[in-house]
Amino acid sequence: FGQFIPASIPVPTDNQSHIAFDPRATRITFETQTDTEKGLVNTFISMDFSGFAQKGSIQPRLRQAYVSWINAKKRQSVMIGQAATTFNDGDVWPESFDLEGPNAMLYLRQVMIRYSFMLSKSDNWIGSLALEEPLSAVQYGKGLEQLPDLVFAVKWKEKWGHLRVGALGRWLVAENNSGTGEASSIGWGLSFSGQALVPYRQDNFQFQLYGGQGTGRYVQDLGSASMGQDAVYDSVAVSLTSLGNYGGFIAYQHWWMDGLRTTVAGGYINVTNQAIQDEDALHETIYVLVNTIYSPFDRFDVGLEYYYGRRTNKSADWGQANRLMLAVKYSL
Known about the structure:
The protein contains one helix and 19 strands. It is mainly β. The strands form two sheets. The chain has a 16-stranded antiparallel beta sheet that branches. A three-stranded mixed beta sheet has the order 7-13-14, with no helix packed on it.
């Protein structure tokens, strides 16, 4: 339940059918807000039950845990703890019951220090700068962590919606599996995302585009892939090559009437493969979502969702999968 990952589709497709009943998407959150002489102090903890456990059982998993300090007079804030990466635009996540979201979503939860500040007197321009936990997800080698990832983002908010740009800088380091032959490479990424509200309707349009080198683990589908998608280590040349990747998604939500809406979304990812990679290395994925969700009363949703995914390898061999899901959600 809640995990449809095109990168994990077997190639070739096994053409088998499966059915599952799963409560692991249940989520518990705890939040406090304390007014002090220096500003507002917030704490936030969120967990679900999607931890690694044997089939037929569930295990709690920490999602987010952080403390933040907001200084309204200086129009700035500081956040320390585990949260969604600053590279992510959390306001463009299409409404669905899928825990993974579109394949090209820039989403990752990790420990960080984030500083946010207003860039205009009208408070509609917001800047964020963060030092985030590094992890070199490397193929054919062992990733090392030496310098934190650096993320900068700017968001422009208006009544019609918002636009956001983000930049990511990384220092990737790896060695061979024997612990020798250290090599390094630079990683970088750029993103552009936004949401537009349709005038005189509840409809909305969402999108995200991204591209870069060595940023695979920040991409939802690539971060979930079985092998590291940041870089490739060559033990013969003793070198580390960052993998280029680009992609994006678009989504549109239409409201038929109060409480009844349909969302359609599509996503694409492409990885620039290297000659050293095996023929079954991930090359591209496609994601399609169509759902209809109804809220008969406040905080209660029931919906039917259809997913299509396709994975293509470096060899051009591909596999595909379909999923139909009925889900119910109640929020306290």
